[in-house]
Amino acid sequence: MSRLSRAGDGKAFIKDLVYSGGRFVSVSEGIDTNDPGWELKVGVLDIHHSQTVANTSGKVRNGQMGRVLADDSAGDHPFGFESYYHDEDWQLQLTRRGPKPKKGLRVYEPEARWVRQIFGWFNAVWPIGQIARELTRLAVPKGHRASTAGWHPQQVHRILNNKKYVGEWTWGATKTLTNAAGDKKQVAADKDAVATRSRPHLRIVEQAAWDAAQVRTAELRGKFGLKPGQKDRGPKPPIDPCAVYPRTLLGGLLRCGSCGGACWYKGSGNRQYYVCAGVIKGTCVQSTHVPAERAQKAVIDTVTNLLNSWPDWMEELSRRLRDAIAEMATQLPLERVRDEQKLQEVVKAIANISRAVESQSTPSPKLLERLGELEVEERDVELRLKSFPSDSAITLPGPDWVRAQLKNWTEGLQDGRKAARVLREAISSLTFRAVVAPGKTRGFARLQFQLRQWPLLLAALDGIPPSVKRLLTEAGQEGEAPIFTIDLGEPTVMDRWAPQIAWRTENVTWEDIVRRTGMDLNRVWIAWKRHVGDDDEADPTR
Fold this sequence. Notes:
Shape: elongated
Helix content: 40-55%
Strand order of the largest sheet: 9-13-14-15
Number of helices: 19
Number of strands: 15
Structural class: alpha+beta
Mean pLDDT: 77
Strand content: 5-15%
Low-confidence stretches: 535-539
């Protein structure tokens, strides 16, 4: 019966068994449900066995705690690590009674290199889902606990947030509770039951890569994470994920100049193009297609050539940037002091709420929710404090340095994975309109765009401390960038000459018009009819 009592509901199980017409017999314990009074024996033994299981569980946890404090393995190592036996005669010890041989921990390089690669991809602005798909495509093993093939985005997310990869090990932070139905859940363990160890020799990820990943994780949490009042069954993103991780270079960026609607990426055979979504829905009349490959290449070439040529308005914006950095350098000490005070207030509030939660047998959901919000705020403030430079002295960038940074930044436009993100940092608006000659129904697309000058410079400044970039972003200065126009085609010979064939209204003969334009008589007449839009005059070829 001790086996049935492990879940704490042995008596209930036996009662259900008898109710269904079964019989339970335990010879060593003298239990037979056909005998009168079996309920009392079962009830007493159920309590005894349940308590024995609880005591054994406590002993096991204490033993594991001792191994953790000795920096040995308690079986809690994630992907990238492995355990090993300290003693050479461990096989012999396993065959004997008594304590099992102890294990240590070490970095397992065949897996650790993939951990570094995951952080590298994530800091290169790869979506977590794309990282999981790439690991699956490369058939990367998932570790000693994996039972299924393929990587899930949640597994990648856990790696990116596991402090063990920077040498900070926490053990026993949660414990398992089970109800009468056998359902289990993880809850926070008591503070005195949690062990924290610093193990710098087990660091896999460099601190700079870890800090950058945490900053980006916080940004994604702000965009896609649970918001106050949302249910735990899943958040509804406040923005379209395709706007953050576009599937095509201009998808979500190119808009229709007629109705303002987004343009959809379509394809037919080997031909890919963008078309206004309103045309597909029947709410827009601008049916001209924008050839995808030509449009993408034209935009990239224009932006690259423009920034490398360093126009006058960029020179003025660079001067504003240097002035703003000089002003921000004086504000940084005050900003750091404010964040330090804020951190102290948050830590104090967390301590107060933690004491209130511990004093309650059933903690209030609102208190737990507020505690979670404060812990997130504490982490964000700590990340901001880490981003401050070690001193207030900041080297002001000169024009040549800024120009070189922009040139390096535009190299991202040649990388297919980065180009979509880079364009969205650079361009504030990108629209197209159809250029249609009189008398025709289709023409070519004309693109117009304007640059985000201030964010463009900030995105290129990798040598500026993150705290300074954050303050500069809040400053939000902007210059007067002109509107740039790109034609993805040109008028035909007939389109160019059609307005000039108005000579016909001046009684110029058809033969003379043919001589002036260099076109044959049929094409001259067709161009004329397109221009005037009527058929009063007979065909001169008849």
